[in-house]
Amino acid sequence: MSGHHLPHLRSFIIALLTACLSLATQADDSSTFEDIQELRAQVGSALEFEFGNINPDADINISVSQLDSRLKLAKCTLAKDFKINGTQRRTRNVSVRVSCNGDSPWSIFVPAQIEVFQDVVVTTRDILKGEQLTDADVMLAKRDTSNLGFGYVGELSQLIGKEVTRNVPTGYALRLAHVSEPNAVNRGDKITIEAGSGGLIVASTGIAMSDGKVGEQITVKNAQSKRVIEAYVVAPGRVAANL
Q1: Reduced to 3 DSSP states, what percent helix, strand and coil does the chain have, rounded to the nearest 5?
Q2: Options 3.30.360.10, 3.30.420.10, 3.90.1210.10, 3.90.180.10; CATH of 117-180
Q3: What distance lies between CA 144 and its chain's CA centroid?
Q4: Do 117-180 and 190-242 share a fold?
C-alpha cells in the first residue's frame, strides 16, 4: 500500500473505533441509567392521569420541561413514584417529584405546564355593576381554567337572574364573587307585611324604606298605621315582622 493512503486509512480506523465506542457507551447507558426522554413522557402520563381524574370533561394540554441530557439517574428497579408538589392542582405551573426507591434510590423535581380547557360562563356584552343577568348576557365558552383560580362558573343556571357586583367586559369569565342575589325589595316599593304569632298571620300593606335581599332586615312603614318597623325580606314584595 502506498504511503499516501496511510493517513486516510488511519483516520477511517479512528472514526470506526469512535463510533463503536459510542454505541457501546449508549448501550451501557440504556441498561445502567434512566432514559431522560422516557422519564419526561412518564411525567406527562402521570399528570394527564391526575388532571384527567379531576377534570374528566376537560381538554388538557401538558408540556413537560426539558431535562439536562447529561443527567445520570440509576435505572430504577422498582416502579417510580410520581407526586405533584404541594397543592398546585389549580395553577398552570406545577412541579412533579419523581422518586425511585430501588437499589440505587434517587428523586428529582420535574417542572411542567398545564392547560385545562373547560366550558365556563362568559359575558356576551359589557355589563355594568348592578345589572341583572339574563339569558342573552352570558354563554358557555372554552377557557383555560388552570389560571382562573377558584369560583369560575360552569353552568348558566348558576348566574341567570343574579346581579353583577362590578363592571365586566365582553368575553369575561364570571366568578361567583362577581355576582350576588338581586334585591327582592327596593326602597319605595309597595310591599305586603306579614306579621303573626301562635299560627295567626295578619297581612297588611306597607312601603319599603330601604333595599333588601331575601333574608335581610329592612325598615318598612305600615300604610294604614304609618308605623315604622323592622322586618325580614322573605320573597320579592313580601316581608315578615314579629308582632
Answers
A1: 25, 40, 35
A2: 3.90.1210.10
A3: 8
A4: no
| pLDDT tens digit sequence for 166-201 | 999 999 999 999 999 888 999 999 999 998 776 778
Q: What is the DSSP string of 77-127?
A: SS--EEEE-SS-TTSSEEEEEEEE-SSS-EEEEEEEEEEEEEEEEEESS-B
Q: Are 126 and 168 in contact (CB under 8 A)?
A: yes
Which of 47, 63, 44 is closest to 55 using CA atoms? Answer: 47
Domains of the chain by residue range: 36-116, 117-180, 190-242
* CA distances from residue 170 to 90, 98, 123, 141 in whole angstroms, order as listed: 24, 43, 5, 12
Strands 138-144 and 200-208 turn out to be unpaired
- State whether residue 22 is helix, strand or coil: helix
**Identity at 199, one-letter amino acid code:** G
pLDDT tens digits along 58-73: 899 999 999 988 889 9
Contact status, residue 64 vs residue 112, Cβ threshold 8 Å: yes
pTM over 0.70: no
Please check whether the domain covering 190-242 is classified as CATH 2.30.30.760: yes
Question: Of 93, 94, 91, 95, whose CA–CA distance to 150 is shortest?
Answer: 91
Mean pLDDT of 97-106: 91
Q: Which residue has the cell 343574579?
A: 162
**DSSP characters over 188-213:** T-EEEEEEEETTEEEEEEEEESS-B-
∠ CA 34-37-38, rounded to 5°: 65
Contact 130, 180 (CB under 8 A): no
